[in-house]
Design brief:
two-stranded antiparallel ribbon; four-stranded parallel sheet; 3 domains; alpha/beta; about 450 residues; single chain; Rossmann fold
Length: about 450
């Protein structure tokens, strides 16, 4: 564990040093560019660079890299890089103004910040990829011990192994699952608790046994404390309670679902983001509208826009708008589009594959019917159908529906031919509701944007 911790620390400091090197490369480009972003003297340029480096020290102390950590998502990396750049620029500006710096610093700092964001994000994902390769080679790994014979332990093992960037390696297993090579049985583990030197222990121990075996659990906890092994208890499915704690004044209660969007401040941030983004996209749509409208009219008689009642926030209905991608037909309110749907015309098919048909929905976002990111709104017939088949289906309406969503960028876009596909979509919609952050929204928007250039086989 200690060697592993030292390696993580070394990785972190190597990345921080790389950040400072790249910062100074960018500063040289900005300060000595032929575009004259900075009009000060050579002495003022040196002071400017010094202050920017001091600001970077302050920013790194709070928002340094986390890619060396095991359980870190893409949105966490995006958030920390964005905050690192923002704090660096703000602190540098405050320090330079406090010094009554004569040269104008706003524009060069802004350009430096934009360049840092454009360079640091790819750097982080490249560094994460290199770390993945390193862990695949067996370096910077964390060894684990598994104890128990329950199916939940099998699922945990698969989850830890499926992502090599986590760097986990099972070195011992005490139980009776055929799927895992055994170091010994559960009885052997219990017997050796009194002779711990004979146990094969990793950096972390995961135990999955019934809670009724309290004495074994407590003895294992004590052993892990003495041996400096991180202990985790994996609850059995039948023992797990899918309730979340909430406080009513000083009284603790439990509820089924908690969403960060229950916080008024988070809702305000999301709404502000929606207004800014939808306004920009509506301007873009206005520029493209004459060309899109002309091609639609040439290829398919009928209206330019397709309007349909959909289920929105709290189950309320609203009119959703799209560019019409199919010929006018009587089945629009009950049948999903299929891959070779004869109702589609050529340009409509292209619009669906590239998401262009969704652009008018930014009007729904601007009005407040929808959000940029959220569970996709379904037609009323499907809401009625699936609410009877899937217990948690209506939970997805606790937040506003979105132009795009977590389910759509994780493989559950398009036609739902079988029930399990809709169940998977609902599961991901609920996950999004419970884990919302503005950084997760940005991540989903980026993944959606890439589908314009990388075709999604489910988009039709």
């Amino acid at each position: 564990m200690r060697n592993n911790t030292r390696t993580n620390s070394l990785i972190k400091w190597c990345i921080i040093v790389g950040d400072f090197i790249m910062l100074n490369v960018l500063l040289v480009l900005v300060l000595y560019s032929r575009f004259n972003f900075f009009s000060g003297s050579d002495e003022e340029k040196r002071v400017f660079m010094l202050i920017c480096n001091v600001a970077m020290v302050i920013s790194e102390s709070r928002f340094s890299t986390v890619i060396h950590e095991r359980l870190v998502g893409v949105d966490s990396i995006l958030k920390r890089v964005s905050m690192l750049v923002l704090i660096q620029v703000l602190v540098a500006y405050i320090l330079l103004r406090a010094m009554q710096f004569d040269a104008r610093v706003g524009i060069p700092l802004l350009i430096t910040g934009v360049l840092m964001l454009a360079v640091f994000l790819p750097m982080r994902y490249l560094e994460r990829w290199l770390l993945k390769l390193m862990r695949l080679k067996g370096f910077n790994t964390r060894t684990i011990t598994l104890v128990g014979s329950c199916e939940e332990l099998r699922k945990l093992h698969d989850k830890l192994k499926q992502d090599p960037t986590l760097g986990y390696k099972v070195i011992s297993y005490y139980g009776s699952l055929d799927y895992l090579p055994q170091t010994g049985g559960l009885d052997d583990f219990v017997r050796l608790l009194n002779a711990p030197d004979q146990l094969v222990l990793g950096d972390e121990l995961y135990m999955c046994i019934p809670r009724s075996e309290r004495s074994i659990i407590k003895d294992t906890e004590s052993l892990c404390d003495r041996k400096m092994v991180k202990f985790y208890y994996v609850p059995l499915q039948e023992e797990a309670i899918n309730l979340q704690p909430v406080m009513l004044d000083d009284l603790e209660l439990f509820t089924t679902y908690i969403s960060p969007l229950e916080d008024p401040m988070n809702r305000a941030v999301k709404r502000l983001f929606d207004l800014v983004a939808s306004s920009f996209c509506l301007v873009l749509t206005a520029l493209l509208f004459p060309f899109i409208a002309l091609i639609i009219k040439l290829q398919s008689p009928g209206p330019i826009f397709f309007r349909q009642r959909r289920t929105g926030l709290d189950g309320h209905e609203f009119w959703m708008y799209k560019f019409r991608s199919m010929h006018v037909n009587a089945d629009a309110d009950r049948l999903q589009a299929t891959e070779d749907d004869p109702r589609k015309y050529p340009f409509g098919n292209f619009m669906r594959k590239t998401n262009i048909d969704e652009l008018p929905q930014f009007w729904n976002v601007f009005r407040g019917d929808m959000s940029i990111v959220g569970p996709r709104p379904h037609m009323l017939a499907h809401t009625e159908q699936y609410s009877l088949l899937i217990d948690k289906y209506m939970v997805r309406h606790f937040v506003k529906p979105g132009v795009t969503g977590w389910a759509q960028v994780t493989g559950f876009r398009g036609e739902t031919k079988e029930l399990w596909q809709m169940e998977g979509r609902v599961e991901r919609d609920i996950w999004y509701i419970q884990h919302w952050s503005i950084w997760l929204d940005i991540r989903i928007i980026w993944k959606t944007f890439t589908t314009i250039f990388i075709h999604d086989e489910n988009a039709y």
